[in-house]
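Consider the tokenized backbone below.
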């Protein structure tokens, strides 16, 4: 999680989890856990969140992911993004999705 300022504390993680449950209940989409098909090892998460700041492209839904660094450069983010695009347009019927990243994050 190279481009995020710090790891979340336990308390912050718990609040984030509650926020994600509320987001799912309200909008019908949110973040999903990612795991390997073979070993079920936790890779990270991916999914959709509403963009909550003003920008020229808002309102919009962001596709996002955070992966454990041991899974970088192995195709997991690409597979997750492809799944999200399909699911967002076909199942969730979203009209617009965006991807946001740090300018330094060329891999994403």
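A designed sequence for it:
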């Amino acid at each position: 999680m190279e481009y995020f300022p710090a790891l979340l504390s336990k308390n912050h993680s718990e609040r984030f989890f509650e926020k994600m449950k509320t987001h799912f209940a309200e909008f019908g989409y949110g973040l999903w856990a990612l795991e390997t098909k073979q070993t079920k090892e936790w890779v990270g998460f991916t999914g959709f969140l509403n963009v909550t700041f003003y920008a020229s492209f808002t309102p919009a839904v962001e596709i996002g992911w955070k992966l454990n660094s041991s899974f970088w450069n192995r195709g997991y983010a690409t597979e997750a993004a492809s799944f999200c695009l399909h699911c967002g347009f076909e199942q969730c019927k979203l009209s617009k999705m965006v991807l946001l990243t740090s300018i330094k994050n060329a891999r994403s």
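The first strand starts at residue 31 and ends at 35.
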